[in-house]
Amino acid sequence: MIPGAFSYHRPATVADAVKLLADLGDEARPLAGGHSLIPMMKLRLATPAHLVDLHAVAGLKGISRSGNDVSIGAMTTQHELLASEEIAKSLPILHEAAALIADPQVRYRGTVGGNVANGDPGNDMPALMMTLGATYQLEGPNGRREVGSGEFYQGAYFTALEPGEILTSVTIQVPAAGHGYAYEKLKRKVGDYATAAAAVVLTMAGGKVATCAIGLTNLHETPLLAADAAKAVIGASLDAASLKTAAQAAEAIMSPAADARGPVEYRKHVGGIMVARALQRAAMRAE
Ligand SMILES: Cc1cc2nc3c(=O)[nH]c(=O)nc-3n(C[C@H](O)[C@H](O)[C@H](O)COP(=O)(O)OP(=O)(O)OC[C@H]3O[C@@H](n4cnc5c(N)ncnc54)[C@H](O)[C@@H]3O)c2cc1C
């Protein structure tokens, strides 16, 4: 229950944070809200010798819009996402999903950057970011670079972050006006991670799906984009047959772990149901 000993560092700029992480090497980890890292440290599944706290780093917080792009600073909390009128208006799927993460105590501390950089397949934000085509801004010893959310996740807890790099912000293009959206998450109880979850962003034209993206949470060692499932519904009205085809196409790429949330077959089955429900609800919301 008590983490191992560590040194605590509190840099004031991104450059200082990056330098600390680069100098301290493998033994150092950035600390954001601490709601994934500290529990891992208490279980001794993570034993960093140095924590580089990002809370005092200037410029890592806040939500802003420039033209059609919304930028979210890495240290913006999940609670701040929920409180943001810009998010509610421009990216309502993020608002819907943030409300399904854990409980208010976790959301007051947990950050967007921590959620997407963590690499835990159970985190909800990564699949959403992939569904929305988000781009991540990274800064490290070799300068700044951008990585698409679709290229960021490489395995459970393995991401495109290089040693010493931190994620500074996430940029998302606002989906088309009148788009439909839904995040369907099955969990055992309030506050739990997803047994299976699906994100859908779509547009409709003449009663048929015109564009569609589908993301999957906790159904593989990384978040997934269900491209074939999305393709299956484009040009179709969402009747029982097309929903079934989409659910089956999504299930075909799922490979969840068997764990306390259920055996593999069960999780794939409910994963398909989440896809069908999210498609239906997104279509109802589309204008
Ligand atoms: C009871 C409970 C229930 C939860 N349920 C859910 C849930 O249903 N869905 C969900 O998505 N999450 C859930 N969480 C996790 C929560 O959302 C975490 O806050 C989130 O996963 C990590 O964000 P953080 O800011 O707390 O990051 P931290 O815990 O501080 O960091 C997590 C990891 O990311 C790294 N990191 C953090 N910020 C950066 C950065 N800017 N750049 C590079 N690396 C960085 C850290 O070094 C660490 O390895 C739950 C947590 C608890 C305690």
Arithmetic mean pLDDT: 97
What is the tally of beta strands? 14
Counting H and I runs of at least 4 residues, what is the number of helices?
12
Give the termini separation. 50 Å
Rg, Å, rounded:
19 Å
Main sheet properties: 5 strands, antiparallel
Helical residue percent? 25-40%
* H-E string: EHEHEEEHHHHHHEEHEEEEEEEHHH
Hetero groups bound? flavin-adenine dinucleotide
Structural class by SSE content: alpha+beta
Low-confidence stretches: none
Q: Tell me the strand percentage band.
A: 25-35%
Spatially, the strands of the biggest sheet line up as 4-5-10-6-7
Compact description:
The protein is α+β, with helices and mostly antiparallel strands. The chain has helices at 14-24, 37-42, 78-83, 85-90, 92-98, 104-109, 112-117, 125-131, 149-152, 227-233, 240-253, 264-285, and strands at residues 7-9, 28-31, 50-53, 63-66, 69-73, 135-140, 143-148, 153-155, 158-159, 166-173, 180-186, 196-205, 208-217, 224-225.
